[in-house]
Design goal:
19 helices; mainly alpha
């Protein structure tokens, strides 16, 4: 009987790798598109953003993005410009922006597969892409127009490009990496974590990238990616930058600070992503990840592991310094290393 089963298994042709990936993407697409008009999130924030994009379709372009939720300053307008083609094609409808989010979310599944495959092997790529496809948190992210959510896609691209650069440095890749960084920082100010990480990482872990042309070309790309935001700042006496500096120095008197915010948000991120929103299970997985990172010798020897570790460490430091209430989208820079 056992020999018969073995013969049957040996005679079964393996599933084509591309077919398996397409099957995973199909699952993710179904979960995101199913009853989308009924399940999409369209509240005041989404309505304001959609209205700004509709104005752009009528020729009224802007250099200012949505207002930040924690201070008297605004994000960049890059997400408005990314949504613009969808509003041109689908018209001024609440669903237009959500279709944009769904498109980025589905595309991210492909990127995660190739990122996991590049980091380890094809099996890792399948597992990572499948978890991304079925994650309730990422599915929720795909159902709302929100300035921060496209950063999941962009941060995945940034990690992928940096890994390619660390293997084969090329200046056009430096430029594209900088442009992606500039775009991502416009989506949420905590994306500065990625900028800090990619400044420090070559100094410590990838010495062949610790060179003048890497930093100068990435900086030029960063300015290009950030150019709509910078254009507004030049025209308005750097009002956003001044308000950000004031906010960092003085903070907000009505917003409490607590280390508990920092401790609580990480298990919540994991539990909402993959663990059925069971918070205590998220705590256990967090502790397991900390133990793994503490014990792993690959963190400093492997380029990718060291990149992920440094991203997590930088995010830890920034969120501790921030010290106020944290929601899961504040941790988008760390989503890729964790998930």
């Amino acid at each position: 009987m056992i020999n018969t089963v073995k013969k049957i298994l040996l005679n079964i042709k393996p599933i084509s790798p591309i077919l398996l990936l397409l099957f995973i993407v199909a699952i993710g697409s179904f979960l995101r598109i199913y009853r989308l008009p009924d399940l999409m999130i369209f509240r005041a924030d989404q309505a304001i953003d959609a209205l700004e994009v509709v104005k752009m379709t009528e020729g009224h372009f802007t250099l200012l993005g949505p207002k930040a939720s924690v201070g008297p300053f605004y994000n960049g307008p890059i997400v408005y410009y990314l949504m613009l083609p969808f509003f041109y094609i689908l018209g001024p409808h609440p669903l237009s922006g959500t279709v944009f989010q769904v498109f980025l979310s589905i595309t991210t599944i492909f990127i995660i597969f190739f990122l996991g495959k590049r980091i380890s092997d094809t099996t890792t790529g399948y597992i990572a892409s499948f978890l991304t496809a079925i994650s309730p948190l990422f599915i929720d992210y795909s159902r709302a127009i929100f300035n921060s959510y496209p950063a999941v896609f962009f941060s995945s691209c940034i990690f992928g490009f940096y890994i390619l650069i660390s293997e084969k440095p090329q200046r056009w890749k430096y430029l594209l990496l900088g442009i992606l960084l500039g775009c991502t920082v416009q989506m949420h100010y905590l994306m500065i974590v990625l900028v800090i990480t990619l400044i420090i990482h070559p100094i410590i872990f990838v010495r062949k990238l610790y060179r003048f042309d890497y930093y100068i070309v990435v900086f030029i790309g960063f300015i290009i990616g950030l150019s709509p935001y910078l254009a507004f700042e030049f025209r308005h006496d750097f009002i956003n930058i001044k308000n950000i500096i004031y906010f960092i120095i003085n903070g907000s008197s009505d917003a409490p600070r607590s280390f508990l915010f920092f401790i609580e948000v990480w298990p919540r991120l994991l539990s909402m992503s993959f663990l059925g929103n069971y918070f205590y299970l998220g705590i256990m997985v967090c502790l397991a990840l900390i133990f793994f990172m503490w014990q792993s010798r690959q963190l400093t020897k492997n380029t990718t592991y060291s990149l992920f570790f440094l991203t997590l460490f930088t995010t830890f430091c920034i969120t501790i310094i921030y010290g106020k209430t944290l929601t899961t989208h504040y941790l988008i820079p760390a989503i890729r290393p964790i998930c």
